[in-house]
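FAQ

Q: What does a record look like?
A: Structure on top, sequence underneath. For example:
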């Protein structure tokens, strides 16, 4: 936790090292740093071999956002384009039932975010190096 207010809206504090809890910073009333629109977008696909109608695929995609919200906070800000899509190939010829599929969709989205964070690598943009979580050890 920071002893002085830190600008929110970016995942790094002013010293550019470590991670900022953006949700807590916003709730404290800290001012928001400008962000590049679309720079915080999460896009994914939930795919199953179950038989799905169009409305059930839509429901799976909707519930998958619960999994994103477990690990990404805040989610669905005005400067991102978070989106999930779902599909069923029907290859199994059956379905596990929507309750089971919905629980699994949220869980798999949570796991996918964690795996992506762990696999991420820092990038250099101009003179700035933007570290990944693994760089912050």
């Amino acid at each position: 936790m920071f002893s002085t207010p830190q600008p929110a809206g970016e995942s790094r504090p002013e010293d550019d090292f470590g991670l900022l809890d953006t949700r807590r910073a916003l709730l404290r009333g800290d001012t928001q740093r400008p962000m590049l629109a679309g720079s915080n977008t999460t896009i994914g696909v939930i795919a199953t071999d179950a038989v799905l109608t169009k409305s059930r695929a839509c429901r799976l995609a909707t519930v998958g956002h619960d999994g994103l919200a477990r690990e990404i906070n805040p989610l669905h800000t005005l400067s991102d384009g978070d989106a999930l899509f779902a599909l069923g190939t029907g290859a199994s010829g059956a379905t596990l039932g929507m309750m089971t599929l919905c629980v699994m969709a949220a869980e798999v989205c949570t796991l996918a975010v964690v795996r992506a964070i762990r696999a991420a690598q820092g990038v250099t943009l101009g003179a700035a190096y933007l570290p990944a979580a693994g760089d912050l050890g």
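Q: Is there anything notable about this one?
A: Residues 36-121 form a domain with the arginine biosynthesis bifunctional protein fold fold (CATH 3.30.2330.10).
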